[in-house]
Amino acid sequence: MIYYNSDGSRAEFCGNGARCLLFYNFLKTGKKKFKFIADDGVHEGYVLNKKGLIRVSLKIPENPELDFKIKGIKYNLCFANSGVPHTIIFLKNIKKIDINRIAQKIRFHSHFSPSGTNVDFVKRERKNLISIRTYERGVEDEVLACGTGITASAFLAREKFKIKENEIFVKTKGGEVLKVLFGKDKLFLEGYVKKIFEGVI
C-alpha cells in the first residue's frame, strides 16, 4: 500500500485508507484475510463481515512520551508513532478549541522537524471511551477521522489513565465510533467501511 496525502506528500501509513483498501479487495476477490506492506512495514487485515466491518493491524508505538512541554506551547503534550507521528493533547473540553490555530504551531514546531507531526485533541468521556479531533499533516486542516491518530490516542489514553480493558472505543469528529484492540505484539483498528462511489477514468 502506497499512500499519498491530499497535498501530494507521501505518508508512511493510513489506518482508514488501509481499511478501505481491504474492503475494496474483498469486494473484488472475496478474500477475507490479508497481509500487505506499507512504508512503515507489514500489516494484517481482516474482513469480519460482508457489511464492511474491517480490522487492520498497526504497530505498537516505540518510545511513547507522556506529558512533556515544548517551547512556546502551553499544553502538556504526549507523543506516539503508530505508523506516522502523532502529538496528543488530553483536554476536558475539545469542542470549543481553535484546533487549526493551536495545531499548526505544534505541527510545524522545530521540536518535530523535519517531518512534522499530526496533532490530536482527546477527551476521556468515561471508562474506555474517548473522543478525538485531529489536525492532519499533509491535509493541513482538521479531518473527520484519522485511523493512526485514533490508534495512537487510544494507546496513550490506556497508559495515561491506567485503563485495564483490552479495547478502547473512539468517537470521531465525523460521529462514527471506531474500536482499538490491544494484542500482545500489535494493535488493531476496527470499524465499518462503506462503498459510496464507483467510477471509470
Structural features:
3 helices; 14 strands; twelve-stranded mixed sheet; 201 residues; Diaminopimelate Epimerase, Chain A, domain 1
Description:
With 201 residues, this protein is α+β, with helices and mostly antiparallel strands. The chain has 3 helices and 14 strands. The chain has a domain at 65-179: Diaminopimelate Epimerase, Chain A, domain 1 (Roll). Helix content is 19%, strand content 37%. Strands 3, 4, 5, 6, 7, 8, 9, 10, 11, 12, 13 and 14 form a 12-stranded mixed sheet that branches. It has a two-stranded antiparallel ribbon with strand order 1-2. It starts with a strand and ends in a 9-residue tail after the last strand.
Fold blueprint:
Blueprint (H helix, E strand, L loop, with lengths): L2 E2 L5 E2 L3 H15 L3 E6 L2 E7 L5 E6 L6 E4 L8 E5 L3 E6 L8 H9 L10 E9 L2 E8 L4 E3 L3 H14 L6 E5 L5 E6 L4 E6 L9
Parallel strand pairs: 8-9, 10-12
Antiparallel strand pairs: 1-2, 3-4, 4-5, 5-14, 6-7, 7-8, 9-10, 10-11, 12-13, 13-14
Question: Rounded to an integer, what's the Rg over CA atoms?
Answer: 16 Å
* CATH architectural grouping of the domain at 65-179: Roll
CATH topology of the domain at 65-179: Diaminopimelate Epimerase, Chain A, domain 1
Beta-strand residue percentage? 35-45%
CATH class of the domain at 65-179: Alpha Beta
Largest sheet: 12 strands, mixed
Shape, please?
globular
Order of helices and strands: EEHEEEEEEHEEEHEEE
- Give the termini distance in whole angstroms: 20 Å
- The chain-level structural class is alpha+beta
